[in-house]
From TrEMBL:
Keywords: Acyltransferase, Transferase
Superkingdom of this protein's organism: Bacteria
Name of the molecule in the record: Acetyltransferase
Signal peptide: none
Every N-acetyltransferase domain range: 1-162
Matching PROSITE patterns: GNAT (PS51186)
SUPFAM superfamilies in UniProt: Acyl-CoA N-acyltransferases (Nat)
InterPro entries: Acyl_CoA_acyltransferase (IPR016181), Bact_Acetyltransf (IPR050832), GNAT_dom (IPR000182)
Length: 162
């Protein structure tokens, strides 16, 4: 496996990998199960938009895992120098490259990137049902700080008010 910097030509592949990898562990997918597509867009459209946002925020903080010239997966990062915190919004791999230790290597690469920036902490989030992520992150020294509950309320009512 080779780790390289993000290139704009990578975007569509990263979006495809992300949508597939986050099936079953996406907040947007949970919202869709409850309320259906929003404004004509499904959760996959919204999740791929998160990758576009990562690119806009910090393209130099996106690292690509490549195997034999093929994108196997990636990690996106951004940082707040003043706060001393590095953030990892997305980590995803194509199915055929999972379970081979590449996620660990990309995470280690991102953590070193943060150390090189003299940051103090690294932050990553995952859902409770993401057993692989929960195991991997804690094995690299991440500690659960708090649990967060996501609430969603429809802004239109289907019942008439009395």
């Amino acid at each position: 496996m080779k780790i390289r910097s993000y290139q704009p030509a990578d975007l569509e592949t990263l979006k495809t990998i992300t949508v597939e990898a986050f099936q079953g562990v996406s907040i947007d997918e949970g919202i869709e199960r409850e309320y259906g597509p929003i404004n004509g867009h499904d959760w996959k459209w919204r999740k791929s938009g998160h990758v576009e946002a990562d690119v806009r925020r910090d393209p130099e903080g996106i690292f690509i895992a490549e195997v034999d010239g093929k994108i196997a997966g990636y990690i996106s990062t951004w940082h707040d120098l003043e706060a001393g915190i590095g953030y990892i919004p997305n980590l995803a791999f194509a199915p055929e490259f999972r379970g081979q230790g590449m996620g660990r290597k990309l995470l280690e690469h991102a953590l070193q990137h943060f150390r090189d920036l003299n940051l103090t902490l690294a932050k990553i989030e995952t859902l409770e049902q993401n057993d692989v992520g929960n195991h991997l992150y804690t094995s690299l020294g991440f500690k659960e700080i708090v649990k967060q509950v996501h609430f969603v309320a429809p802004l239109t009512s289907t019942t008439e008010k009395s």
